[in-house]
Amino acid sequence: MKKLKDPKSGLKHFIIIASYQEPVIGYMLSSSDKFKISELYEFENNQENTYNMHNLNKKEDFSSLIKFFISEFRNDDFKIEDNLEKFLLSKTFNGNPLLIQDLLNKIIDKELIGFDSKGTLRCTDNLKEMIESKDFSKLEIPYRFEKLMGNIIDTIKNPNEIIILKAASVIGNIFDIITLYQINPIKNLMNEDLLKIVYYFERINVLEILYDIEPDKLVAKFSLPFLREVLYSRMLSEQKTAIHSEIARNFKNMKFSYMSSEKELENLLRHLIESENTVMNVMDKRREDQSKEKQIENKNENKSKKTNSKENGELN
Question: I need a surface site. Which of 127, 137, 219, 270 has the fewest CB within 10 A?
Answer without folding.
Answer: 270
